[in-house]
UniProtKB/TrEMBL annotation:
Belongs to the V-ATPase 116 kDa subunit family. Residues 91-125 form a coiled coil. One of its GO terms (cellular component) is vacuolar proton-transporting V-type ATPase, V0 domain. The chain crosses the membrane at residues 420-444, 465-482, 545-563, 575-598, 634-652, 760-784. PANTHER family: V-TYPE PROTON ATPASE SUBUNIT A (PTHR11629:SF63), VACUOLAR PROTON ATPASES (PTHR11629). Keywords: Coiled coil, Hydrogen ion transport, Ion transport, Membrane, Transmembrane, Transmembrane helix, Transport. The keyword Ribosomal protein does not apply. This is V-type proton ATPase subunit a.
Length: 816
């Protein structure tokens, strides 16, 4: 099984045959060799310098250089994102010299930083002048009313201070009045803008700090302005504060700084105000023109970068990955060659050797690289060649555990059994068509959608589009068997086999229907729907069907364990694990499945619960009415004894045989395989063949005891677990019936377009939200559990590790 050296067979059943290879590469051709192997994508390098830190490795400087170029590219991408641009995929591919690219990236970064710096300075100046213009306009309106009010208060204070010269309450004039009471007070003022959300707090603290000896006037700006400091749009108020004295001025300045209020000078003279406004407006127009030109230049530069960005980014990632891989290679003692070790598929031998020869020729090396296959006891990585259809099913299996090297791969069977078990629980061909249409949208647009950034849930659905397609197709099939189209039965394959006893059908609900024509050719007869016996009949049919499916799948798992043991030459597992397991399972639940089929075929009224219970409690009693075939009593006793004999058969011989084999190995009496591991001789673990460890019989026996108990109890619990197929199928069918009968038909009973429209909207919403989303997820998870636990635990070890070849194809998927 697997691929030969002449080419791969795309066999999913077992991992491709792998080999450990040593490459001895001359230093002058090392770079090209790694590059060509990366293009090939079929060689997994082992790290031969694991004990060294990244900084101690040979090519640390080159990796640092690549990381610096990657940083510059990330900076360009951030700038493009801020500018609303996206990298353009360039169709042309040209060889770019990395040295020239490094220089070009440095120059572009410097130019872009300079443009950004200039734009920030110009934008800051533009925002400041815009605020200044608003202050000049609004403060001019405030100034005259505020000034007249202050003058009136000042005259009152002067009159008051003339009569009461000794008083201490005139704090606003304390500096000037102590010098010369008759001298006119000179008021100062400060104007600017403060954030509207801080204006009330600013006013209160200003009042407290100056003991009320200021006059504050504010004007609300209708539109938000761009703050020069933060660059964000902020709603602000223009303020003007009148004060007296240097102490008050200092306090006001500190408060302005504390509240982030921007201060701007203001002239009392009207002529000067108009002159300054005119100058500011002219300056703003010039800055606007300059900013537009700067942004246009920046946009052109980013577009130029964007056109080449994907190619540059790939080249830098490729360069970094090559040197990272070279750091995993070991320098030989002559320092003229690099030694590499790694795994590759056997079929890729010729392709790898061709790549090595091409690298030697292209680098003009006089010495060719040496390809040497190593013999090893280490377990190789697991490698399955998948395509876009099978990869999603392989991921379902790998989520449980990666297959051990060359053990049977469950995904071969999962491709069919997983969507089938899902469909058993989701059987409605109307819902199946809806799922199929949704997944066909993903499939037909997969090229476009694969290059887009999708949301988490959409990405999950898109990656599993072929799984959902298979689930939908199988759901249509089981829906036709259940004869349910959004819970409505249809006579697709002919008329019903049942009819009324007379033309009036008055006794149909009491005496029932009679068979008037041949049996309905495919699926469930539509007349069962809505009848009194519908639920008992469907319950019985689906429960028995679930047991049949479960026993069949568990038998499949045990049979696969036989092929695993045969493939690895493990006779102990064949005779003392596979044989007793198949006997035990089929003596009990295989027999139950046989009884179900016989009862269906004969129409017998036998009680299968009674048969199975008394098969254990009193196997020698007569069966009476529960006898389904001749010799059933003797057959049951034989099966019961076989099941009882299978338990010690599983438990006792295997540990003793393993002990005997261990003793024979180290006495030199036998070269046969000595343990029950599933490793073939050529990949047997190193420790087994070289370390003479003591055989822990008690440990092996306890392990076998646990395994036996787990299988015996699991045979019962796993069979019961398959009854979830019946339960979820019934739940899905009943929910669909409730939505149809109690929502759609109920709304259709009203002679009103509004009521019918509301009913239709509620029905569609419930169908999509509950049946097509929640029920799909529920059935998916239950099918997943049946595969992981009930099916795979019969044969699947799943303790291997994946084959991760060095490949440039995966670089585009990894965002640094």
């Amino acid at each position: 099984m697997g691929g030969g050296i002449f080419g791969p067979t795309m066999d999913l059943m077992r991992s491709e045959p792998m080999q450990l290879v040593q490459l001895i590469i001359p230093i002058e051709s090392a770079y090209r060799t790694i590059s060509y192997l990366g293009d090939l994508g079929l060689f997994q390098f082992n790290d031969l310098n694991a004990e060294k830190s990244p900084f101690q490795r040979t090519y640390a400087a080159q990796i640092k250089r690549s990381a610096e170029m990657a940083r510059k590219l990330r900076f360009f991408k951030e700038q493009m994102t801020k500018a609303g641009l996206s990298p353009t995929k360039s169709l042309r591919s040209s060889d770019v010299d990395l040295d020239r690219l490094e220089v070009a990236l440095g120059e572009l970064e410097s130019e872009l930083i300079e443009i950004n710096s200039n734009n920030e300075m110009l934008q800051h100046t533009y925002n400041e002048l815009s605020e200044y213009k608003l202050v000049l306009q609004k403060a001019g309106e405030l100034f005259h009313t505020a000034q007249s009010s202050v003058a009136a208060q000042q005259s009152e204070l002067e009159a008051y201070n003339t009569t009461e010269a000794a008083t201490d309450s005139a704090l606003l004039l304390e500096q000037e009045m102590t010098m010369d009471p008759s001298k006119q007070v000179k008021l100062g003022f400060i104007s600017g803008l403060v954030a509207r959300e801080k204006s009330m707090a600013f006013e209160r603290i200003l009042f407290r700090a100056t003991r009320g000896n200021v006059f504050l006037k504010q004007s609300v700006l209708e539109n938000a302005v761009v703050d020069p400091v933060s660059g964000d749009k902020v709603e602000k108020n223009v303020f003007i504060v009148f004060y007296s004295g240097e102490r008050a001025k200092n306090k006001i300045l500190k408060l302005c700084d504390g509240f982030g209020a921007n201060r701007y000078p203001f002239m009392e003279d009207l002529n000067k105000q108009f002159q300054i406004i005119s100058q500011v407006s002219g300056r703003l127009a010039e800055l606007k023109t300059t900013l537009d030109l700067g942004l246009a230049h920046r946009s052109n530069l980013l577009q130029t970068i964007g056109f080449e960005f994907e190619q540059w980014n790939f080249l830098v990632k490729k360069e970094k990955s090559i040197y990272h891989t070279l750091n995993m290679l070991n320098m030989d003692v002559t320092k003229k060659c690099l030694v590499a070790e790694g795994w590759c598929p056997v079929f890729a031998t010729d392709q790898i050797q061709n790549g090595l020869r091409r690298a030697t020729l292209d680098s003009s090396s006089q010495i060719g690289a040496i390809f040497h296959i190593l013999q090893t006891k280490d377990s190789p990585p697991t490698y399955f060649r998948t395509n876009k259809f099978t990869s999603a099913f392989q991921e379902i299996v790998d989520a449980y555990g990666v297959a051990k090297y060359q053990e049977a791969n469950p995904s071969v069977y999962t491709i069919v059994t997983f969507p089938f078990l899902f469909a058993v629980m989701f059987g409605d061909w109307g819902h199946g068509i809806c799922l199929l249409l949704a997944t066909l949208y993903f499939i037909f647009r997969e090229k476009k959608l694969s290059s887009q950034k999708l949301g988490d849930i959409t990405e999950m659905a898109f990656s599993g589009r072929y799984v959902i397609m298979m689930m939908a197709i199988f759901s249509i099939y089981t829906g036709l068997i259940y004869n349910e189209f959004f819970s409505v039965p249809l006579e697709l394959f002919g008329p019903s086999a049942y009819g009324c006893r007379d033309q009036s059908c008055r006794d149909a609900s009491t005496a029932g229907l009679v068979k008037v024509r041949a049996t309905y050719p495919f699926g469930l007869d539509p007349k069962w729907h809505g009848s009194r016996s519908e639920l008992p009949f469907l319950n019985s049919m689906k429960m028995k069907m679930s047991i049949l499916i479960g026993v069949a799948q568990m038998n499949l798992g045990i049979i696969i364990s036989y092929f695993n043991a045969k493939f690895f030459g493990d006779n102990i597992n064949i005779w003392y694990q596979f044989v007793p397991q198949i006997i035990f399972l089929n003596s009990l639940f295989g027999y139950l499945s046989l009884l179900i089929i016989v009862k269906w075929c004969t129409g017998s009224q036998a009680d299968l619960y009674h048969v199975m219970i008394y098969m254990f409690l009193s196997p020698t009693d007569d069966l009476d009415d529960n006898q389904l075939f001749f010799g059933q009593k003797f057959f049951q006793i034989l099966l019961l004894l076989s099941a009882l004999a299978a338990v010690p058969w599983m438990l006792f011989p295997k540990p003793f045989l393993l002990k005997k084999q261990h003793e024979e190995r180290f006495q030199g009496q036998s070269y046969a395989r000595l343990d029950s591991s599933d490793y073939p001789p050529e990949i047997e673990p190193h420790s087994v063949s070289h370390n003479h460890e003591e055989f822990e019989f008690s440990e092996v026996f306890v392990h076998q005891l646990i395994h036996t108990i787990e299988f015996v109890l699991g045979a019962v619990s796993n069979t019961a677990s398959y009854l979830r197929l019946w339960a979820l199928s019934l739940a899905h069918s009943e929910l669909a019936s409730v939505f149809y009968d109690k929502v759609l038909l109920l709304a259709w009973g009203y002679n009103s377009i509004v009521a019918r429209s509301i009913g239709l909207i509620v029905f569609i919403s419930a169908t999509v939200g509950v049946l097509l989303v929640m029920e799909t997820l529920s059935a998916f998870l239950h099918a997943l559990r049946l595969h992981w636990v009930e099916f795979q635990n019969k044969f699947y070890v799943g303790d291997g590790y994946k084959f991760f070849p060095f490949s440039f194809a995966s670089l585009g998927e990894d965002d640094e």
